[in-house]
Amino acid sequence: MICPLCKGAMTKGSTNLPYELGKGEMIVIQDVPAFVCKQCGESFLEIQVTQVVEKLVSTAKQDGMTLGFIRYQRAA
Length: 76
Hints:
- It is built from two helices and four strands.
- The chain has 76 residues and is α+β, with helices and mostly antiparallel strands.
- A hairpin with a 2-residue loop joins strand 1 and strand 2 (25-37).
């Protein structure tokens, strides 16, 4: 796979995704599977992974979480 930003080579890896839920409210989804560019470091998610992340964020909001970390592999 080629990076759409810099045209560098991409490999499978993981990334951390911060989400601001509101003023002073933030969660971070850790170790999310992603394609990571070897050249610029930009990461890209597959659609299935994005859908899981969206569910995790939605659940965190519903549960009233205001600050925290969610490990993708445990919660997905």
